[in-house]
Amino acid sequence: MISKAADYLFLTLAAAPFVYYVLVLYSSWLFFRRSKDGTWKNLDFTPPVSNLKPVRGLDPEAYENFASYCRQDYPDYELIFCVGDENDASVPLLQKLMREFPQRQIRILYGSGRNAINDKVAKLVRMVNEARNEVLVINDSDVRVEPDYLRTVVAPLRNPKVGGVTCLYVSTQDKTFTQHLQSIGMYSDFYPGVLVARQLDGVKFTLGPTIVTTRSHLAGFGGYEAIENKPADDLLVGRLIAEQGFEVEMLPYAVQTVPDYDSPRTLFTKRLRWMTVMRHMRPWGHVGLAFTQAFPWSLAVALTHPPTIGLAYLGPYLAFRVAMTLLIGVWGLQQKGLWKSMPLIVVWDATAFVIWLLTFGRSSIRWRNVDYRIQEGMLVPATPSPARGPSPSKPVREGS
Known about the structure:
This protein has 400 residues and is of the alpha/beta class. The protein contains 13 helices and 11 strands.
């Protein structure tokens, strides 16, 4: 009797992720439906903007990324880049940018003037202080945008209830196994979680490729100075704006990022770091991820029960995962040829489950070849940091 009851309980728990998958489909459909009817667009609100870009080294196709911001259909904006020093590998490209787009207001700042663990955020402190305009658009150095970008992402600030804006991102072009795996993970795993969170609790986060807000809203939580020694600064900006009572808007609009994952190990390491940070920021939510992963549950059912029962779980698992990925990646984000990567969903799910298990009991992360401990939400170097040498010529993305 007890064993049968335990088995029923196990089968019930194993079916829990399917409820989550239904919620993913519903939340995704609601979100991307707006992109089809165009009701979210209101592009005639164009206050002066300061676009802030912290830079460290060179990303792949860096010049084209930077140049896309100089081709904006926007009446009044400035571009501010902040690098470590004059020896940074990006400086010649930034100087070329200034020569080839003389009509644009472009400034290069050297050094943050601060001593912070999160150098990207330290640079943002200086850029915010030196920005000429109230409205700020902040994005990573690997992001490439279309000419309507600034008009699109700034428009929601017309509503005084909106304090922050963010949007999704897609890869410019996936060429390697690792890059295809990363993209399939975004469409099938990361974005589903983001869209469900939006549906259930509202948007209380921002994503690094696009953060739009104002100097006043940043000052409301102490500015970037308040988070320069914390991990997940991108997420925190949205959370701290929402805590002031403002809405954070996530648009059904995507920018492009140039992939730079050169090996599965690189992708695994970054994912492990991010998930470890999330476990410390949202410990109970992290535990709850157990009920969003049908792969290990369905596999366990298949290995411990008759084939008919195993297929009753594995079949819906595969069907749901493909449907979620197609809905978000193809219908929502209009990614062509995604069906070719569908077999990678199982690879990603297996990898994500292993990474999730590894995060428990883990309090350290490796970031830019330095080991840190996470203590009370702060980053603490595991060992004394060596003296900094010249800025690297190898691509090292700010915030990566």
